[in-house]
Amino acid sequence: MPIITFQPAVVLQDLPAPVPVKVPLGEPVAETRTSSFQGEAGSRAGVWECSPGAWRRQILQAEFCTFLEGEAVFEPDEGEPVRIKAGDAVYFPANTGGVWRIEQTLRKVFVVFDEQA
Length: 117
What we know:
By secondary structure, the chain is mainly beta.
């Protein structure tokens, strides 16, 4: 696979129309937009954006991400809530379930991958 580069600011301009999250928890219903590409061994990388609202995390693969903008709190099913803001980098182990509470539109670059990869 070739080396792939992208500039998040450019990719954000070309994101598809927002779609409501699948498991919202009240109002407002958060909406997400994603632009991504498939990597090797089950990996996927891209840029993601989410408007304010609360919802359950649905991707249960391991994920590493760096947040470009916004503020949120992630409340894992096990453990203490994690406050996240622009500039933070976070690793979610596989099977990390919990609730996102997006306070200001959140944008991140991410890599989702299989633990076995």
